[in-house]
Amino acid sequence: MLSLSPETISIEIMSIDTYKLTSTEEPTDEVLSQLMREAAEEARETNAEATQRYFEELRRAAANIR
Prior knowledge:
Elements: H1 29-65
């Protein structure tokens, strides 16, 4: 018979802070949703920055042509 006490049981609750992409466990729907939201936000920010740099470069190039 197996006897378990509360001190010997360790259950790790999966959260966005504890999940590792290299984990062999599938993320919960909540963790996956949070990961996707964070990735989308980072992509939006990166895209906005790249777009701003692109148009700044275009303005500089246009100013040099004049």
